[in-house]
Design brief:
With 434 residues, this protein is an alpha/beta fold. The chain folds into two domains: 103 residues, Urease, subunit C, domain 1, CATH 2.30.40; 257 residues, Alpha-Beta Barrel (TIM Barrel). It contains 13 helices and 19 strands. Strands 1, 2, 3, 4, 5, 15, 18 and 19 form an eight-stranded mixed sheet that branches. The chain has a four-stranded parallel sheet with strand order 9-12-13-14. The protein has a three-stranded parallel sheet with strand order 6-7-8. Strand 10, helix 6 and strand 11 form a beta-alpha-beta unit. Helix 2 runs parallel beside helix 3. The longest helix has 17 residues. The chain starts with 6 loop residues before the first strand and ends in a 6-residue tail after the last strand. Pathway: Pyrimidine metabolism; UMP biosynthesis via de novo pathway; (S)-dihydroorotate from bicarbonate: step 3/3.
Amino acid sequence: MAQTPNLLIKNCKPVGDGFTGSKTMDIRIKNGIIDEISDSLSKSGDEEVFDAQEAYVSGGWMDMHVHFREPGFEHKETIESGCRAASFGGFTEVACMPNTQPPIHTRDVVEYIKKRSEKEAVEVHPIGCVTKERKGDSIAEMSDMKDGGAVAFSDDGDPVSSARVMRVALEYSSMLGMPIINHEEDLELSRPGHMNEGTVSTRLGIEGTPGIAEETMIARDILLAGFTGGHIHVAHISTRKAVDLVRRAKAEGIHVTTEVCTHHFDLTDEEIDRRHFDTNVKMHPPLRTRDDVEAMIEGLQDGTIDVICTDHAPHAIEEKEVEFIYAPNGITGLETAWSVTVKRLLEPGKMELTSILEKLVKNPRTILNLSVPVLKHDEPANLTLFNTHEEWIYSEKEVRSKSKNSPYLGEMMKGRAVAIYNKGQFVENILREQ
């Protein structure tokens, strides 16, 4: 991607960091640094000019839960294609999960990912494994991975099933000041479920995964975090009782944070019936009930849920085009996250724009101990330009990911990311002809 160190963004509406988004202004960037935020700035020297046409601009968004598949599964996604999907969705930074081959369980793999992403406008932060080879037996080399650039630890795709191992992991990671992100699933209760266990799974005759499989593991990890003083981050929360557990733990002062995927505050298990077993609505945790969806929104509203994420999980077409019970779990989400958020949170008045942006800009970085971008003079320019009204169709032509396993393909979207600026690079997200 071409470097754009000097850029004048005209007619944008800054929001956050004291800006309300109500006033159209200009932003001048010099050598990748915000030089001015003011009214009616004029082109200076060799800088490029971009007319934002009254798009909002905020600090760059971050998705702290993605799967970029490299190394090992490049037929699904690569770091390059994942970054394309991220920038199209408005994300300037992501944290990638370690269920690769080899897993991100040693410093050399962490540094490989950092090196492979250097040229991209999107900053990629590797999440190291909790245990060696993600086998759940012995703790990986956490300190060494931190020195190489890891920002957290997780065996995502698999839970840390052993309470003994999780206790040691929390004690050790707390000394490093880093969170453990657990895939909250009691395998004794969840397998071999293929969707949410409930009335829909009974009607369809598919073995289900009950919510208690998630809730039991969350309860255990909350207790261990309280006991050790460590920081547990609950990945992709999905049930009402799970949100209640986190809410009570926060009230007790336990260091627990959590995230919710956009599909978990949008879709329900009824989609599996409605879409006739479309494998692009199969993920884990599975889509839950309408009551669970409402609980996700309530958790976002009251601050129990800290972060909006995607769990972007690309799979090749041939892997998903099988019978429902044989299909792998996971969907792509980076490219549609903002439109789903507009539809479910902003447009119906469930949340204000500034509150939503906290969960996309500030909170994920605070949890991962990363610098939060600021709309301020002399700060590095790390920006997302976006709107909340533009209608567009998420067709296959718009897919930047290497995979197309999305339940939103063909649907009308509202609101999209217009461009990002990060690492001295400006990426304009131009819609292709429908």
